């Protein structure tokens, strides 16, 4: 695969300039960030395969993390009266963001609102909810971060399970489950069918609305889970967590081979692309590249992937036309 070749070339190239790039610490950091990006990108892969997009992913990460950490009731300067056990707090966070994802899906599938427009509005609304809940949790200076410590969060974000970070084990486990779902279940085949041709899918008896709503609900929950893992790594949740992550996540999915036109994409491609983007981030940081140049690099990667996807779509359409003629 092209992504595997890019990973190899990038590793060799950066290692030649900065040998610490392949140190144990650096690899651990790459895997942790790849897992956080990747957990959210798994949901985005499903959305993009259906022909949709979700621009609220970064805001969902922040809201999920804020809910999970804030409901513990143990944050520094916490003033909210709610105090839940960490598994229950995480469950509530996943349910809330899953419900918001369902609202996105209902708007897209039931009312025909363009996914770009709906999720762009939801991105802002959810970010506002995050600020409101953070202020409710830490009733100090408006916009203050929720700083906390919890064993379960620490285990998810900062500790390891054997030789791998816990987050990486979680990411790979989720990737395996979703990959098997796409390959071997009616729901997975329906996702591809809707992205390929929604009218044909409808005529085949697929409940398009239910599938799309389900996909956006999964997207919401996985975004929150990625935010919770990031919160466990940082032991802090800023209301601005995840700002700009939409670009990274969409880049991962498209570089991994998914088509923005829908109907095409693989979980393996998303996993490998998450590692690639995390390597780019880590490598640029180790080389002390200014942040605005990093945006330029990642934006260029996304643009190149979109151009390649458009070329593939046109080539495929031309081949089908020749076969039909």
For the biggest sheet, the summary is: 2 strands, antiparallel
Query: What is the CATH topology descriptor?
Result: ABC transporter involved in vitamin B12 uptake, BtuC
Give the neighbour order of strands across the main sheet.
1-4
Mean pLDDT: 91
Assign the CATH architecture: Orthogonal Bundle
The termini sit apart by 32 Å
Number of domains: 1
Compute the CA-based radius of gyration.
Answer: 20 Å
Number of helices: 13
Oligomer: single chain
What is the class in the CATH system? Mainly Alpha
What fraction, in percent, of the residue positions are helical?
over 70%
Derived from helix and strand composition plus strand pairing, the structural class reads mainly alpha
Could you give the count of β-strands?
4
Order of helices and strands: HHHHHEHEEHHHHEHHH
Shape: globular
Question: What proportion strand?
Answer: under 5%
Low-pLDDT segments? none
Structure description:
The longest helix is centred in the C-terminal third of the chain and has 34 residues, at 291-324. Helix 2 packs across helix 11 (245-255) and helix 11 crosses helix 12 (267-286). The radius of gyration is 20 Å and the shape is globular. Strand 2 and strand 3 (164-165) form a beta hairpin. It contains 13 helices and 4 strands. The protein has helices spanning 2-17, 24-49, 57-70, 86-109, 115-137, 151-157, 166-184, 186-196, 198-203, 208-234, 245-255, 267-286, 291-324, and strands spanning 146-147, 160-161, 164-165, 236-237. Strands 1-4 form a two-stranded antiparallel sheet. The chain has a two-stranded antiparallel ribbon with strand order 2-3. By secondary structure, it is mainly alpha-helical.
């Amino acid at each position: 695969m092209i992504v595997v070749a890019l990973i190899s070339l990038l590793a060799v190239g950066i290692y030649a300039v900065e040998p610490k790039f392949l140190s144990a610490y650096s690899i651990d950091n790459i895997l942790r960030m790849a897992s956080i990006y990747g957990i959210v990108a798994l949901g985005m892969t499903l959305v993009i395969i259906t022909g949709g997009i979700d621009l609220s992913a970064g805001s969902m990460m922040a809201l999920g993390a804020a809910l999970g950490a804030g409901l513990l009731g143990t944050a520094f300067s916490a003033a909210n009266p709610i105090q839940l056990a960490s598994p229950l707090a995480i469950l509530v966070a996943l349910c809330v963001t899953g419900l918001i994802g369902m609202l996105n899906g209902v708007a897209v599938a039931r009312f025909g609102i363009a996914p770009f427009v709906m999720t762009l509005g939801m991105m802002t609304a959810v970010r506002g909810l995050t600020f409101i809940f953070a202020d409710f949790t830490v009733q100090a200076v408006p916009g203050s971060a929720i700083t906390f410590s919890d064993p379960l969060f620490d285990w998810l974000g900062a500790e390891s399970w054997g030789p791998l970070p816990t987050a990486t084990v979680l990411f790979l486990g989720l990737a395996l489950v979703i990959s098997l779902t796409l390959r071997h279940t009616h729901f997975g085949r329906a996702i591809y069918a809707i992205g390929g041709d929604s009218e044909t899918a409808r005529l085949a008896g697929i409940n398009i609305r239910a599938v799309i709503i389900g996909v956006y609900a999964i997207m919401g929950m996985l975004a929150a889970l990625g935010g919770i893992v990031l919160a466990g790594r940082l032991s802090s949740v800023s209301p601005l967590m995840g700002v700009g992550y939409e670009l990274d996540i969409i880049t991962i999915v498209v570089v991994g081979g998914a088509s923005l036109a829908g109907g095409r994409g693989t979980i393996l491609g998303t996993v490998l692309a998450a590692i690639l983007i995390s390597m780019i981030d880590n490598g640029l940081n180790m080389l002390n590249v200014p942040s605005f140049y990093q945006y330029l690099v990642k934006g260029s990667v996304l643009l190149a992937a979109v151009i390649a996807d458009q070329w593939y779509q046109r080539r495929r359409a031309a081949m089908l036309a020749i076969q039909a003629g």
